[in-house]
Request: fold
Amino acid sequence: MTTETMEAPAAAAPTATPPHPLREFWGYFSANHGAVAGLVIIVAVVLVALLADVIAPHDPNVTNTALALKPPFWQEGGSIAYPLGTDPIGRDILSRMIHGARLSLLIGIAVVAISIALGTVLGLVAGFFRGITEIFIMRLMDIVLTLPSLLLAIVIVAVLGPGLMNAMLAVALVILPHYVRLARAAVITETSKDYVTAARVSGAGTVRLMFKEVLPNCTAPLIVQASLGISTAILDAAALGFLGLGAQPPSPEWGTMLADAREFVLRAWWVVTFPGLAILITVLAFNLLGDGLRDALDPKLKR
Amino acid sequence: MLRFILTRVSLIIPTFLGITLLAFFLIRLVPGDPIETLAGERGIDPARHEQLLKEYGLDKPIFVQYGIYLSRVLQGDLGKSMITQEPVLNEFKALFPATVELALCAILFALMIGLPAGIIAALRRNSIFDHGVMGISLTGYSMPIFWWGLILILIFSVQFDLTPVSGRIDVLYYIEPTTGFLLIDTLLSEEEGAFWSAVEHLILPTIVLGTVPLAVIARMTRSAMLEVLGEDYIRTAKAKGLSRFRIVALHALRNALIPVITVIGLQIGVLFTGAILTETIFSWPGVGKWLIDAIFRRDYPVLQGGALLLGVVVMSVNLLVDLAYGLINPRIRHTR
Amino acid sequence: MALVEIENLSVEFPTQGGIMRAVDGVSLKLEEGEVLGVVGESGSGKSVTMLALMGLIPFPGRVKADKLTFNGRDLLTISERDRRKLTGKDVAMIFQEPMTSLNPSFTIGFQLTETLRLHEGMDRKAARRRAIELLEQVGIPSPESRLSAFPHQMSGGMNQRVMIAMAIACNPKLLIADEPTTALDVTIQAQILDLLMTLQKERNMGLVMITHNMGVVADTAQRVMVMYAGQIMEERSAADLFASPQHPYTAALLAALPERSEGGRLATIPGVVPGLYDRPKGCLFSPRCAYATEHSRSVRPELRPWAGGHIRCHYPLGDPDRDAAIQHDHPIKTEAAS
Reply:
């Protein structure tokens, strides 16, 4: 794809033209092997999540004490029917992980969606009205940023009560400041530009202005931040699950699975290894994607 | 210089107020009777209820209540644990050194590996070493550390029987806390083997807690170094005929460390959060585990007071980092 | 023996879109105590040429040359260690941006004494004394107190004086000044130029003055080299060049000087320096040249001796057969010609 432009010596090829912007973006993005790998993994996880009911070999919640703590198939005592072994009450680990992918993705996307929705509104409000509104909102966000994110999430969940919904809400609140700052910064730079003044003069309302004119102009950093936000959300939600404050058993959420498995760490390595590996790989994929997107979009933002 | 310090200190006052406000209001959200939540006495008779209501000022308007709460906090009164009836501050003081010891070891571990790795990666940009460091650090950054702890236990404790699984020291030893830091106390106690037992117990928690800061420091050092190495003054240093080592270790590093110091400071906040997970995994008797235990015992005064104290600690560390930043960056020191 | 001898130097940078040749076949000789002006628009390769001489081409740039010597020493085969003994001592350089060229984290005194201690082996005290002397020589008032100042506490002009002090600290045989006055206020510019010329005469050192400003060259240089898109276009004594420029590009540059403007309007050169994607096949200046022909658009001229210097042009302005040659090669009507 990019090889022909790479090899063309400019001195000898006076007619070479600069690449198209979209092509250039893909050029930068695809040159980053990590980002492409991240994208591939994410697509795979999404497919697994969508097809969970079809591809999971067993029901994730059916218990069978006769089959408790069966090792993975390549170890003695394991069977191909339960490829990654079973947990202490005989549930198939692979099936639970497949259904867990659904939960984790849902958590990541829902949390970031809530956060973006709330964050952009707050940021837009702060950026448009300035003054005391802005100071209040931004100070509050600074405080949230000062506090360690997981500590804040833990306290919020402890107060609201453990559970997946509360955990998601807590994580959404914790990552909120990033979006508020982004949206506010975008508003402040964009409102000083001529086209916003023009729209204002032509009678566009403030609210209309915010959403139709300003928002589309901060999509690039928002996309990057969203990708990184999903990874934080999955990680923090899993941590809450692990602490017993997130999704509650028997939910196949990956962090919750680890919490259940903790006491068996000395006897059955597989019950702790696989769910954590799933978290690591998924989070890593979103981070790789976010980094790749930022690198690919950044030169444009600077230009 | 004094003015610089004073401005910085005054800047944290709103943050402090905000944290107290959060702590104050969060506890109001707990369903149930606030007297029972705060006083820690369950099933009390109406007369006592009335008395406590007055004592806590809960019959007054909400902002007066906040005023009362704030003045108590400023006097160091954070309430009593519902379970032990001990003042929250005392419990915190007893457990905090354990967390600090772990956190310091973790940040040292992260610095000792992260800084050189980042510097070398920047100097050998796009080499295999660079790609390796960046790959590993992104993995570390994405690591669910609660799982990482379990995996390390699986490998080092279960498989090779090298390190202990939990606690700060072997139960064989009883060490009277003098400094609260076991590494120091064991050396003072002259009990044979106690020091090494404490070291052994520290290894895995240090690695687990240090992993994320290590990753962040390596990444940050690399990018700061790359940026600095492209600066005009590095070209000047080269034009002076200085050795490559002097250019990197003195002219570049001094400037690259400025953003890195900030990141390290921010990581200390992350470290205290990570301590909650790490301490839970390794049954490390610090404030993180104490907080989690409090949640499950519904010990709300401990939760409120502990979270507030941790918030204040993080805030203070950030302030110190800010001041240190001013010290090593003359541009800030002189202009503000 | 010439102080500097460069033959057929080229510097290349690989980029996303291909290899960029920043310097292309540059040859030059510089005698001891000579002042050479290197002129060209930004991106003409004048700085890169001198950075190559200093050995400061950043990775992944590649330097190639048939000959590259300084004071009789071959710089192409010199060891890294020996080169460091030369740079900063016998050949020194000052840069365009004094504010960013000094390290913000160290005091002026530290940065100044560093060179003295490295190359002259002075101890702390001796270096300090010499630093004060140097600051006096470059006209910095109350030099002792300035030693403990940081670069951001001083003005751009003062910082450029510090840069000059640092450069002349070890009595170099050659000083390369890369746009030393461009970032400064007009009033300061003249002072810095005066300072450089005074120091050059006192010490009889070679001086290369890189600039895009013909006026600066006119005031300072004995010889001038005009560069365009990485190549030398013309190279002659300053007096001759200013009296009768031979290359159309030189002529256009001179015509753009305010004091030479005719009829109250400033002359401009239409178009821009070719970039990575639009390097012409023939003469690099042909797209902007008023006298371009079919021939000059397709065949690149060689650098050849001409009128006491060198030129890279098919039709030098002083050539008596010039008009006939242009007619013969099918002239192209351009905007510039009208």
Observations:
- Residues 186-203 of chain C form the longest helix (18 residues).
- The longest strand of chain C covers residues 18-30.
- The interface with chain A takes residues 16-21, 24, 276-281 of chain C (CB under 8 Å).
